[in-house]
Amino acid sequence: MSSARQEPIGVAVIGAGYWGPNLVRNAQATPGLKLRYLCDLDADRARRVLGDYSTVRVSDSLDEVLADPAVAAVAVATPAATHLPVAMAALEAGKHVLVEKPLAATRAEGLRLVEAAESRGLTLMLDHTFCYTPAVRHLRELVRGGEIGTVQYLDSVRINLGLVQPDVDVLWDLAPHDLSIFEAILPDDVFPVAVAAHGSDPIGAGRACVAHLTVRLSNGAISHVHVNWLSPTKIRTMVVGGSLRTVVWDDLNPAQRLSVYDRGVDRTEGTGLGAEVREQTIVSYRVGDMVAPALPEREALRAVMAEFAGSITEKRAPLTDGRAGLRVLAILEAASASLAGGGEFVTVPGDRALDAVG
């Protein structure tokens, strides 16, 4: 076994706009990575992000960056409409790719990226940042470890007075966060099979500004997502109900982000009882303790970068791989079709969902 020290992975950040500087900062702080370039069509903006004394190179040419053998991976923080050409160029150049959500503008485009990465043995990872928070990681352990029992429902609220986007509705802007969390925490045999979406545009923006998603899961449970750009109050909560315990995640409460309740409703068979007595005894209420797990406070994007480096070094799929991003896109496209069709349930495309409803 070689004791040679693993060389850090040369990485380039593509895009110096809103999210790019965050990727730059965390790439520079991740031991397994070495930031080589910041690439943006506006080179002056990239220089301002890096500061006067940085040794990181600035380029306004993606081709130049991808041609450099010192760059083994790229992190893409460009508009969603450009994800396909930018990420595809990087994959074709043999680079590993981390891409900001969503994976692409459509599921078909996302599938092209997934297949390109898989055929080349390259890492394709989504920057589903919430999945790397200590709270969601603990929530994943609770759900997938069976501590809450069978998943019965999920209910998520993500509302605030937000920026009305010029190119996407509120579903495509905010719901990917919640859908990616569902994807990360649910057991492998529990997944979305159909979705119904309802939305409204009270301010005449030309796109839904308030929306509700109802997602049918393969085990018969439902999940619900409420997203809203127009709320004067900011709420970030998720309730995951199980047959044994219920977990409440409040992302805006740093003192108690997770609350685990040993409270719920139990069903008894009532065998051997008369019909009238059975109706009265079939449901019983369980009132137990509430536990608030102690969680570390650390920046999720740092964990994203560490996972990106680890997946490349260890030649394994990251937690939020291209397939996970593809499944989120599938739900969003089905939701858009439902919204356009008056809120009817639309089957979520994908092998697992089609098998479940077929």
Strand content: 25-35%
Query: What kind of sheet is the major sheet?
Result: 9 strands, mixed
Counting helices, strands and paired strands, the structural category is alpha/beta
Ends: how far apart? 50 Å
Query: Secondary-structure element sequence?
Result: EHEHEHEHEHEHEHEEEEEEHEHHEH
Count of runs of 4 or more consecutive helical residues: 11
Strand arrangement in the largest pleated sheet: 14-13-12-11-7-10-9-8-15
What percent of the residues sit in helical stretches (DSSP H or I)? 25-40%
- Taken from the alpha-carbon principal axes, the silhouette is globular
Mean pLDDT: 91
Low-confidence parts, pLDDT < 50 over ≥5 residues?
353-358
Quantity of strands, as a count: 15
Radius of gyration: 22 Å
